[in-house]
Amino acid sequence: MASPEQQLATMLANIPEKTGKQLTEWKTIIASSDCSKHGQIVKFLKTEHGVTHGFANLIASKTLETGAPIDLVTAQYSGAKASLKPIYDALLSYAKSLGDDVEIAPKKTSVSLRRKKQFTLITPATKTRIDLGLALKGEEAGARLETYNAMCSHRIRLETPDDLDDFVKDKIKLAYSRAG
Fold first, then answer.
1. What is the enclosing helix (H) or strand (E) of 4?
2. Cα dihedral across residues 58, 131, 144, 162: positive or negative
């Protein structure tokens, strides 16, 4: 499976073939439009130029990049969600202890933990709670283990570092073992 970085590189290389223009040309077109926000640019590219959603999203993102590096984890745990960072740190520390093959992949609103495939998704869901998504298809939900979504079949809600108890660690370890 290609890494997210490889997938991005492939999409960037395919922009001219799939959209009919180079990224630099799209940036010029967007600069001459009235669009300044991501959603406006995506809508503009889709409706006015027939660009598919995936490429419109990529072009919009690249157009709005400032070049300044963004620490996605710091951004997730800033402001009202800053108090959740110790929970995140404890989760990450435990996950890393499971093996050297744990890949940490921050996204804009969450952090994915993977081996050959994703086994855990850490999301600061509210200012008082982290949702720990787990790939545990086939496991029974109950008590703290809730059904969740297609990407992570189950979720455990964490509000303090103490919530990372043996029950939660066992579920993370099970998800980790299935992802190898």
1. helix 4-19
2. positive
Asked if 174 contacts 113 with a C-beta cutoff of 8 angstroms, the reply is no
Given this model, what pLDDT does residue 5 score?
Answer: 83
Q: Are 9 and 23 in contact (CB under 8 A)?
A: no
Which amino acid belongs to residue 159?
E
- How far out from the chain centre does Cα 103 lie? 13
In the block, tokens 């157009």 appear at: 63
User: Quick check: 175 and 120 in contact, CB under 8 A?
Assistant: yes
Read off the pLDDT of residues 29-63 as tens digits, 9 standing for 90 and up. 998 898 889 999 999 999 999 999 999 999 999 99
Query: What pLDDT does 139 receive?
Result: 92
Question: Which amino acid is it at 19?
Answer: T
Three-state SS annotation for 42-78: HHHHHHHHCCCHHHHHHHHHHHHCCCCCCCHHHHHCC
pLDDT of residue 36: 86
Domain range summary for the chain, segments of one domain joined by +? 4-64, 73-178
In the chain, what is the greatest distance between 2 CA atoms, to the nearest angstrom? 57
Angle at 78 between CA 58 and CA 4, to 5 degrees: 30
Burial class (CB in 10 A: 0-12, 13-18, 19+), 105: middle
Beta carbons of 60 and 45 less than 8 angstroms apart: yes
